[in-house]
């Protein structure tokens, strides 16, 4: 049979990968030539990017008040105005000056705080509640469910993933840029995608990263494979010439793992699904119990990625997402890793990973890369390299005792309670997509954001705080900023849409005003001029000083406007290509909403919690589709 590396010669060049993932939009050039790879190294611009700016205090406080107004009563708003004015004239000034001083020595004054306080200080379990998850979209076109293909497809996926890893090591992945090509984006999160993990701590966790470029030195080059509670180390994945070992050899190794996993293993992975203090206690105990345990944990933490071989057979995107988010095989995931790919029995696949390491855009780019590679393959025949490097996987066996066994039971119960309470659907709206929205003068993302506002308003008769992600990767080590999507303009438009006192022409005008306001907020957030990261910086300075928390942060309006992780709607545009991802809803009585926008359709994922008496993810999705239809009707009829 033909060598698999020859089959890959048919795939799309990495330099021609095009993907839009955040409003803005981040894109890789669709016209880049192969020569461009040799001129631009993946990480070459990272150290020369501008520092993250510190917004003007008065402007931040003004925007904050604007975001509060549509969500509180007149009396509450008047009180909040007094609090904010006082803050801006007293303690806020002092804290802001401290922040400016920090920014003089820290090129990204938020980086350390964001990791620590947004992620690593949380004591919640990562599983279900906090990790990213998603399907592998090949199920829609290239790889439909098919019994007997699990190992073959896993070997192909692994080959492509290891090629991507090699491209990152060689710094030949394209540099991500804005749609116009004028802005270069920070690529350091790619380094966090591989060979990264999270170490549990009693009060705060730690991130460890072992990835290195070839220029920087040697790098771990093994993976972890889990199956039925067993953990295997698979190394010797690259030939001496750097080529990935043949796919038939990978199938052989995976077959050995399946054969050796017929009886349930130790299920050590389930410990990573526990609350963080409990897992930290178990982690420390296991290291003290046997020095080999510490070496085993180190081996897992350093692995390029984790592949889980699962017995489930999900057949559509919603089922894959639920299995990836909260399936029954928590003992097959290392939730602390930045990337676990889940290979199901029927050849479908999904993923889960810790959000602390990186933002969803990095996973989406990788997923789209693999998808485009598969679609470009002209032959599915598996092959092998000449004289393949043969190596058997090595099972990792931990020394345990009664305390570890009890900890596993506790973790399993924690996971089950969380998994039993979440729900997710993924469906599509085919009424129209990006082409139509742009043809009538609107931005497809802002249009969807307003549809979400209207959907909620039509169900509940009110607006609630809504979070949308904006990227700040044009700055040194930039990550994200919050767009506070619930504006007075959006509220006025929603009211007009459900009442009978406005003409379609008037509704269209209000729609335009709400759209333009959202675009303004998005552009400001991308420029590092949002509200929430600035306020978080001031809050952290106050907290770490020990002088007390300013009243601005204890004012009920702060929580009612979404502050402190209280956004009822947590949303994000995943991209303009067939990739999908999500996280759980931020609030128990809220929704998570994550969507793709393609030429002719919107694809929407909604997450929620079963124990909330006020939420209904199916009704909310239906309300979104009805709102999108109403919006088109308003736009069309206003022109008659």
Short summary of the structure?
Helix content is 43%, strand content 13%. The chain is built from 22 helices and 17 strands.
Shape: globular
* Quaternary status: single chain
Q: Could you give the distance between the termini?
A: 64 Å
Q: Write down the Rg.
A: 25 Å
How many strands? Answer: 17
- Trace the largest sheet across and list its strands: 2-10-9-8-6-7-11
The proportion of residues forming helix, as a percent range, comes to 40-55%
Q: In DSSP terms, counting alpha (H) and pi (I) runs of 4 or more, how many helices?
A: 22
Strand content: 5-15%
Average of pLDDT = 92
Q: Output the structural class.
A: alpha+beta
- Indicate the low-confidence ranges by residue numbers: 1-38
Largest sheet: 7 strands, mixed
Provide structural commentary.
The protein is built from 22 helices and 17 strands. The protein is globular, with a radius of gyration of 25 Å. Mean pLDDT is 92; it is low at 1-38. The strands form 4 sheets. Strands 2-10-9-8-6-7-11 form a 7-stranded mixed β-sheet, sandwiched between helices. It is of the alpha+beta class.
């Amino acid at each position: 049979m033909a060598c698999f590396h020859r089959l890959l010669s048919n795939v799309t060049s990495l330099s021609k990968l095009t993907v839009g993932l955040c409003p803005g939009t981040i894109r890789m050039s669709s016209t880049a030539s192969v020569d461009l790879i040799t001129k631009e190294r993946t990480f070459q611009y990272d150290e020369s990017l501008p520092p993250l700016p510190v917004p003007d205090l008065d402007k931040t406080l003004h925007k904050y008040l604007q975001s509060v107004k549509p969500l509180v009563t007149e009396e509450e708003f008047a009180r909040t105005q007094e609090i904010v004015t006082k803050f801006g004239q007293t303690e806020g000034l002092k804290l802001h000056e401290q922040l400016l001083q920090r920014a003089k020595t820290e090129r990204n004054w938020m980086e350390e705080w964001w990791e620590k306080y947004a992620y690593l200080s949380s004591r919640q379990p990562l599983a279900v509640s906090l990790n990213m998850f998603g399907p592998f979209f090949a199920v829609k076109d290239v790889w439909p469910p098919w019994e007997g293909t699990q190992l073959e497809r896993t070997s192909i996926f692994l080959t492509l993933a290891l090629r991507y890893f090699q491209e990152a090591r060689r710094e030949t992945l394209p540099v991500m840029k804005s749609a116009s090509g004028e802005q270069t984006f920070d690529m350091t999160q790619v380094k966090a995608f591989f060979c990264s993990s999270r170490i549990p701590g009693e009060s705060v966790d730690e991130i460890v990263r072992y990835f290195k470029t070839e220029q920087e030195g040697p790098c771990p080059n093994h993976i972890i494979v889990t199956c039925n509670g067993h953990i295997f180390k698979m190394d010797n994945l690259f030939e001496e010439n750097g080529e990935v070992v043949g796919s038939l050899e990978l199938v052989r190794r995976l077959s050995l793992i399946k054969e050796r996993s017929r009886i349930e293993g130790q299920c050590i992975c389930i410990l990573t699904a526990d609350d963080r203090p409990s897992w930290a206690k178990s982690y420390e105990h296991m290291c003290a119990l046997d020095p080999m345990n510490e070496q085993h944990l180190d081996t897992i933490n350093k692995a390029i990625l984790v592949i889980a071989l699962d017995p489930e057979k999900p057949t559509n995107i919603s089922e894959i997402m639920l299995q990836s988010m909260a399936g029954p095989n928590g003992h097959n995931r290392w939730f602390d890793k930045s990337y676990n790919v889940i290979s199901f029995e029927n050849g479908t696949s999904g993923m889960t990973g810790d959000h602390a390491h990186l933002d969803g855009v990095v996973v989406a780019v990788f997923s789209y890369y693999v998808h485009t590679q598969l679609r470009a393959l002209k032959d599915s025949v598996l092959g092998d390299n000449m004289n393949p490097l043969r190596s058997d996987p090595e099972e990792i066996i931990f020394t345990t005792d009664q305390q570890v066994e009890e900890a596993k039971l506790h973790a399993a119960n924690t996971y089950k309670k969380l998994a039993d309470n979440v729900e997710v659907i993924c469906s599509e709206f085919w009424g129209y997509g990006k082409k139509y929205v742009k043809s009538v003068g609107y931005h497809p993302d802002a249009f969807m954001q307003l549809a979400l506002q209207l959907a909620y308003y039509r169900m509940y008769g009110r607006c609630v705080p809504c979070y949308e992600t904006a990227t700040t990767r044009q700055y040194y080590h930039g990550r994200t900023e919050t767009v506070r999507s619930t504006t007075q303009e959006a509220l006025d438009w929603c009211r007009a849409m459900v009442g009978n006192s406005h003409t379609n022409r008037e509704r269209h005008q209000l729609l335009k005003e709400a759209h333009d306001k959202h675009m303004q907020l998005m552009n400001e957030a991308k420029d590092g001029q949002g509200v929430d990261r600035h306020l978080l910086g001031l809050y952290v300075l106050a907290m770490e000083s020990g002088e007390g928390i300013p009243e601005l942060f204890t004012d009920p309006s702060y929580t009612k406007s979404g502050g402190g992780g209280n956004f009822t709607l947590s949303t994000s545009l995943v991209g303009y290509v067939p990739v999908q991802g999500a996280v759980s809803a931020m609030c128990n009585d809220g929704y998570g909403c994550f969507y793709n926008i393609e030429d002719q359709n919107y694809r929407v994922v909604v997450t929620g919690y079963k124990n909330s008496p006020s939420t209904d993810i199916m009704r909310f999705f239906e309300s979104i589709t009805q709102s999108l239809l109403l919006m088109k009707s308003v736009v069309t009829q206003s022109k008659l």
